[in-house]
Amino acid sequence: MFKNLREYLSSVFRRDPAARSVLEVLTAYPGVHALAFHRVSHRLWGWRLRWLARMFSQLARWLTGIEIHPGARIGKRFFIDHGMGVVIGETAEIGDDCTLYHGVTLGGTTWHKEKRHPTLGKNVVVGAGAKILGPITIGDNARVGSNSVVVKDVPAGATVVGIPGRVIGPKKEDAKTQAREAMAKKLGFEAYGQSPEMPDPVAHAIDLMLDHMHVVDNKMKILSSALEKAGINVNLEMPQLDVNNLEESPPSSYPQRDSTDTKKNS
């Protein structure tokens, strides 16, 4: 038991630079107190002493401001920082080394007596005020941004932000994404191709333009090859875009009209 306690306290010191001493963590950290109460109430829940288990969890809620249902399953080295307003539902499952900040809700979306709360993998971090709702799965090493509302599964290692929560990493690496990045690099700017979980209209518009330019570029290469076979040498290579000087005069590789032509037309 003391070995597990030392291991847990070490994990708290690693995740909270404000921790000064073991005495401070044991006496002034409501997240630690709430977890200790939950270990007891969960054991009572398993023994089918349901009313007593709820009384223990209710006492913990009153003392710490953290509500953890006795039926929730929580792994090792679970840490709640600050803690006020955290709610963890009955069928929630939390893996080892997870961290929750204040105001987090692991809530249900149905009134049926079934699995209705989230499952968090190992080493998941959930930011302050985030809401994770329904019987969804948050993969290992995932990060949920503050005040996000997550209602869909999150892959391992991903970061989720916004309302509704959208995945911003890891980036999806498929053939279309690679083609977009290659075209963007050719034009001279950094691509930010979106994934289906990111309904960003600006990113979607840029992706469509990159797809169109990729088709045009291939057509230009085919046309250039046909002209060369016919004995006509023409350079159809796309000039490099200088993103640092967009407001200055156009690059010399672009054909420019003579000022005398402008005067004649006027």
Topology of helices and strands:
Blueprint: H1 2-15, H2 22-28, H3 30-46, H4 50-64, E1 67-68, E2 73-74, E3 79-80, E4 87-88, E5 93-94, E6 99-100, E7 105-107, E8 119-120, E9 125-126, E10 131-133, E11 137-138, E12 143-144, E13 149-150, E14 159-161, E15 166-169, H5 175-187, H6 201-229, H7 259-265
Helix pairs in contact: 3-4, 5-6
What does this entry look like structurally?
It is a single chain. The protein is an alpha/beta fold and 266 residues long. The chain has 2 domains: 2-169, UDP N-Acetylglucosamine Acyltransferase, domain 1 (3 Solenoid); 175-249, no CATH class. The chain has 7 helices and 15 strands. The chain has helices at 2-15, 22-28, 30-46, 50-64, 175-187, 201-229, 259-265; strands at 67-68, 73-74, 79-80, 87-88, 93-94, 99-100, 105-107, 119-120, 125-126, 131-133, 137-138, 143-144, 149-150, 159-161, 166-169. Strands 3-6-9-12-14-15 form a 6-stranded mixed β-sheet. Strands 1-4-7-10-13 form a 5-stranded parallel β-sheet. It is elongated and about 90 Å long. The model is unreliable at 190-198 and 248-266 (pLDDT under 50).
Descriptive tags:
266 residues; alpha/beta; UDP N-Acetylglucosamine Acyltransferase, domain 1; 2 domains; six-stranded mixed beta sheet; five-stranded parallel beta sheet; 7 helices; 15 strands; 38% helix; elongated; disordered C terminus
